[in-house]
Amino acid sequence: MADNFLEVHYQEYEAKKEAWLRKRKHLPKQKARQISKPDDEAL
User: Fold this and answer.
1) Dihedrals φ, ψ of 19, to 5°?
2) Per-residue pLDDT for 18 more than 90?
3) pLDDT averaged over the chain?
4) Is the dihedral of CA 11, 17, 20, 24 positive or negative?
5) What share of the chain is helix, strand, coil (3-state, %, to 5)?
6) Which of 9, 10, 13, 31 sits 20 to 30 Å CA-CA off 41?
């Protein structure tokens, strides 16, 4: 194995993670769906 193998891969992982988090922050948040019940419970 090459020197600093784990360190290099960990740095790549951190860079990918940071890019993913940055992208995730700009996505619109999904709203919870509201399920409406009918007024008449007998239906």
Assistant:
1) -65, -40
2) yes
3) 83
4) negative
5) 50, 0, 50
6) 31
Give the integer Cα–Cα distance in Å for 15 and 21: 10
Measure the CA–CA gap between 5 and 13, rounded to whole angstroms. 12
Q: Burial level of 11, CB count in 10 A (0-12/13-18/19+)?
A: exposed
User: Three-state secondary structure along 16-31?
Assistant: HHHHHHHHHHCCCCCC
Number of H helices, E strands in the chain: 1, 0
Both structure tokens of 38: 């009918």
Rg (CA), the chain: 23
